[in-house]
Specification:
The chain has 186 residues and is mostly beta strands. The strands form 3 sheets. A 5-stranded mixed beta sheet has the order 1-8-5-2-3, with no helix packed on it. The longest helix has 17 residues.
């Protein structure tokens, strides 16, 4: 019984540590991204670059609840749709992969216009007024799903995972590996 309580406490502490990022830079998970969480639901936090306060919740949607499904996998992000209508949107970031991933939504002219850091990930601190983080869900565990609600103005948005992890083969940067997609809002 004591061992189960201790294990539950370790899992809870790991979940809290995963949420301790302000979204201002690349998340560096240190070791294998999939070994840090024992839960299938992940944990999420939101950073907002606009005046709105998008809400993120790491849970399965209610039956019939509308959402734009965004699949996170090694190493791709696949939204069900790439054209949306302005206004309130609900994203469902579902991690179909074996590693932890995140979903960052940036108002940007293009993927190529995003500033990169020395390791080739997006330098989120260098984003300018016209290229800004709109919302973010961090650390979606393998098999997990997080809902994100945000009000989108017309324009172009880039969805990406900016996680960098260290492994036996060196550093793997999820953005550089192809975890990015573009959507248009009219």
């Amino acid at each position: 019984m004591t061992m189960r309580i201790g294990a539950a406490l370790v899992v809870a502490l790991l979940a809290l540590v995963a949420c301790d990022d302000d979204g201002a830079s690349v998340r560096d998970l240190g070791g294998s991204a999939s070994s840090g969480s024992g839960s299938g639901s992940g944990s999420g936090t939101v950073a907002s670059g606009s005046g709105s306060e998008p809400a993120a919740e790491c849970a399965e949607p209610e039956p019939g609840e509308p959402a734009l499904a965004v699949t996170l996998d090694e190493y791709q992000i696949t939204p069900d749709e790439d054209e949306l209508t302005r206004g309130p949107q609900r994203f469902l970031a579902r991690n179909a992969g074996e590693e932890t991933h995140e979903l960052v939504v940036v108002a940007a002219r293009s993927v190529e216009a995003l500033p990169l850091d020395a390791q080739g990930g997006v330098d989120e601190e260098a984003l300018e007024e016209e290229d800004r983080i709109v919302a973010e869900v961090e650390a979606v565990a393998p098999g997990g799903a997080c809902k994100l609600e945000v009000d989108l103005d017309p324009g172009t948005y880039v969805l990406f995972c900016n996680i960098r992890e260290r492994g036996d083969d060196g550093v793997v940067n999820h953005f550089l590996q192809g975890m990015r997609a573009r959507i248009k809002v009219s």
